[in-house]
């Protein structure tokens, strides 16, 4: 009851007690009692009389104005931190360059210093909770990274507990894809969608699964790890040690590798120039080349999108989701990639499952992750164990 | 509340009011009030004092002894009907040969006559509800088959409403794969598993998805339609009009087709003899040949299992389920198929997702579908709209 009431206020904004009773399908008496308790707990506040609906005026209820959540999103080469209010509106953010390979002490130290700065700037002493995302597999229940391939030194490090100790508030740790999916659900294109997939195509590839409004983690917490689905028995070697993984064909690192081969092979003067200039190519360089109309770069993007579409077609036939949101660094190459993904996914899935299936690019920037991380912890703060009974 | 209380009694058996309060995490007062109401409604009964736990004795509560549900499972060439009590124990069943291509009037007529016989035999006047399954896509909310490929004459036929009129009780219609999955959940190997896939390999191939204890139908109701996932760009033609579908490689019809080619090509004397004898071969004939150690038949099963495993590996990496149950007619070929499916699925999925993933054969026979159909409607009967508030 408490959790559902607070989630309504978080997601729908201030509501009158009468509206809360309607939306939660309980009596006004129950709402009044529950609101009283939440005001005492410092989680909610009464906010004046509601507009008249005829009869006695109801009272408006809002989340307490001083609730603050922290969101921390750690990436391979940079990190974002932010502070939100109880409704997850972002009040301030910081973005820093930071190499994750420096290990947890250094990276978390930098993140927490940035959080402290933002909190001080906002005059916040005690945030109510913090969510933190890392770019690798996580044991959600233990709050530690598990054998993360691109995070040397982080395996088993007690990230959740270390951050919780420093900030003095409850903390939850999840992988970046799940947190981005939660962000889309709260503030992005998937806002009104109960069942959707968020596909991140960055250096690696992963998928967040939202089913009936809830993130689905699978029985071992590794649901959505689609980057290592084998799409070809005879594909390139993957960072995971296998061959033919989707990520080894279509991830940002794969795109950079293939672009380098194209440049060296003399098939794209534009990419060759960039390679000579910078010493290495990135997925973003392929995006630049595509904007210049470079035929080889367009071909690379098409091939990448085709493989992603092939996997998504299978997932669509299997799960029949209501939307697919594409995000992550490689979306810098944007519409060329999206067009190919759409073509293959629609062409290969069942007509019934794709009849009304939007496949769209994420419109959230760095803030999407911060909001997702804040929402992750807000769900837990708003639903303390003692009230799980409803 | 009502729904959760009745579902506890259905799945756990008679419980004392004290146990109900514990399991539902509500007060004993609430349980007592709710039980009183359910007794009045004829859904529950008090069943004497509970064993003492020290202090005042609690009262045992059970489902009303006269609750009866009907389960009807229509297949391509036969149908099963059965009647269960409130806890879904099967009291009697009938199985008839019946060609689904005779159309809904004939087939439903035969099914309902059989139901009436069983009800009369058991002395049941008014069943509380009936579940019915058909081997094709269904619009669950409208209760009609939708363009079912092997069911000429059934498209859009109001199956649910027709059966409801005849039996005078609420009815739900679903596809056979979903109903079999629900049966596994209630009475099969997946009984204690909250997240699993039920894969039916019969004439066609389909998948029931159970997530957090609930069947997942997808946003258009077509989740689990894995038979038409394209596993090869250059595969055989499928009944659906596309090429390279999983079903066109590995379904029972595909197996029969390939066995016929093997027999005609003179590569299996055993299959050639069967073909000459019967004029046609079936998937069951391949099973016979495998039992005889026929190398070509073993090869066919391996190839079939390999393709199924290839798709399952993708689904396992994606959804990280807790169990996969294999059922349907082709499981007559049993352990050879299972071994191949296991080998490919375990070999190609992520180690974390398969570390503790059982892939097992269904142990339920025809009764599995009857129990599943009865459970489908029981959920709806036990949760009338009026009580959806909790």
TrEMBL record, chains A, B:
Xref: PANTHER family: GLUCOKINASE (PTHR18964:SF173), ROK (REPRESSOR, ORF, KINASE) FAMILY (PTHR18964)
Domain HTH marR-type, first and last residues per copy: 1-46
MF-aspect GO terms: DNA-binding transcription factor activity
Listed InterPro entries: ATPase_NBD, HTH_MarR-typ, ROK, ROK_cs, WH-like_DNA-bd_sf, WH_DNA-bd_sf
Organism: Nocardioides marmotae
Pfam family, one: ROK
Similarity-based family: Belongs to the ROK (NagC/XylR) family.
Record Gene3D superfamilies: 3.30.420.40, Winged helix-like DNA-binding domain superfamily/Winged helix DNA-binding domain (1.10.10.10)
Protein name: ROK family protein
Superkingdom assignment: Bacteria
């Amino acid at each position: 009851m408490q959790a559902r009431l607070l989630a309504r206020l978080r997601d729908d904004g201030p509501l009158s007690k009468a509206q809360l009773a309607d939306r939660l399908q309980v009596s006004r008496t129950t709402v009044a009692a529950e609101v009283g308790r939440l005001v005492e707990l410092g989680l909610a506040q009464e906010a004046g009389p509601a507009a008249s609906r005829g009869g006695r005026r109801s009272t408006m209820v809002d989340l307490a104005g001083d609730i603050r959540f922290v969101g921390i999103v750690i990436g391979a080469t940079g990190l974002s931190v932010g502070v939100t209010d109880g409704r997850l509106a972002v009040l301030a953010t910081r973005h820093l360059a930071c190499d994750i390979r420096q290990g947890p002490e250094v990276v978390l130290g930098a993140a927490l210093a940035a959080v402290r700065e933002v909190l001080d700037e906002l005059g916040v002493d005690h945030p109510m909770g913090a969510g933190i995302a890392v770019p690798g597999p996580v044991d959600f229940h233990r709050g530690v990274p598990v054998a993360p391939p691109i995070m040397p030194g982080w395996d088993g490090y007690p990230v959740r507990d270390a951050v919780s100790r420093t900030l003095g508030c409850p903390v939850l740790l999840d992988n970046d894809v799940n947190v981005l999916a939660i962000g889309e659900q709260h503030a992005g294109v998937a806002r009104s969608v109960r069942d959707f997939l968020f596909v991140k195509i960055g250096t690696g590839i992963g998928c967040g699964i939202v089913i009936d409004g809830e993130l689905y983690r699978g029985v071992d917490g590794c649901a959505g790890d689609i980057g290592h689905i084998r799409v070809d028995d005879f594909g390139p070697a993957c960072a995971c040690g296998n061959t033919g993984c989707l990520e080894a064909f279509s991830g940002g690192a794969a795109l950079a590798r293939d672009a380098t081969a194209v440049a060296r092979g003399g098939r794209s003067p534009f990419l060759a120039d960039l390679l000579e200039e910078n010493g290495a190519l990135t997925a973003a360089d392929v995006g630049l080349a595509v904007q210049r109309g470079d035929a080889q770069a367009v071909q690379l993007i098409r091939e990448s999108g085709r493989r992603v579409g092939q996997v998504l077609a299978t997932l669509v036939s299997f799960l029949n989701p209501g939307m697919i949101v594409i995000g992550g660094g490689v979306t810098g190459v944007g519409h060329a990639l999206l067009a190919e993904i759409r073509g293959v996914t629609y062409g290969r899935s069942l007509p019934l499952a794709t009849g009304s299936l939007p496949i769209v690019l994420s419109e959230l920037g760095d803030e999407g992750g911060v909001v997702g991380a804040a929402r992750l912890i807000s769900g837990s703060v708003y639903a303390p164990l003692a009230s799980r009974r409803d």
